[in-house]
């Protein structure tokens, strides 16, 4: 069971911002922006590279949840960034697909 599955099942505490039938949103424990939260599917897809066509609805739900939670957090007007890391060179540290939502400051480009 991944860290994120344990958060979703309430085995590990987290500051939960929202939840749906197939996703959960919570604050990142090591924020990289004034507002930084994760949107995570409740069942584990190890990384976006392993998502399948059968995950289409879930992937859409994750994006809608990210936007909804960003509005809730006051990020909609000024904007925010959504990041998905894939593999070690992509910065992935937890093998469970998740969306980072960062805002509350200007985001530089290129990242990294």
CATH superfamily: HIT-like
Could you give the order of the helices and strands?
Answer: HEEEHEE
Q: Helicity range of the residues?
A: 10-25%
Our count of helices gives 2
Total domain units: 1
Tell the overall outline: globular
Describe the structure.
- This protein has a five-stranded antiparallel β-sheet.
- The protein is an alpha+beta fold.
- It has a single domain (3-103), classed as HIT family, subunit A (2-Layer Sandwich).
- 21% of the residues lie in helices and 22% in strands.
- The mean pLDDT is 96.
- The longest helix has 17 residues, at 56-72.
Give the SSE map.
Layout: H1 3-8, E1 16-19, E2 23-27, E3 35-41, H2 56-72, E4 80-83, E5 99-103
Antiparallel strand pairs: 1-2, 2-3, 3-5, 4-5
In short:
This protein is α+β, with helices and mostly antiparallel strands and 112 residues long. The protein has helices spanning 3-8, 56-72; strands at 16-19, 23-27, 35-41, 80-83, 99-103.
Tags for this entry?
single chain; alpha+beta; HIT family, subunit A; 5 strands; 22% strand; globular
């Amino acid at each position: 069971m991944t860290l994120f599955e344990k958060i979703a099942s309430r085995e590990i505490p987290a500051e939960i911002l929202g939840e749906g039938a197939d996703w959960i949103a919570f604050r990142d424990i090591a924020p990289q922006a004034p507002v930084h939260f994760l949107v995570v599917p409740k069942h584990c897809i190890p990384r976006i590279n392993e998502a399948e066509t059968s995950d289409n609805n879930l992937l859409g739900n994750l994006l809608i949840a990210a936007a909804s939670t960003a509005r809730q957090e006051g990020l909609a007007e000024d904007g925010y960034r959504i990041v998905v890391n894939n593999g070690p060179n992509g910065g992935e540290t937890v093998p469970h697909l998740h969306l980072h939502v960062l805002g509350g400051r200007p985001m530089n480009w290129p990242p990294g």
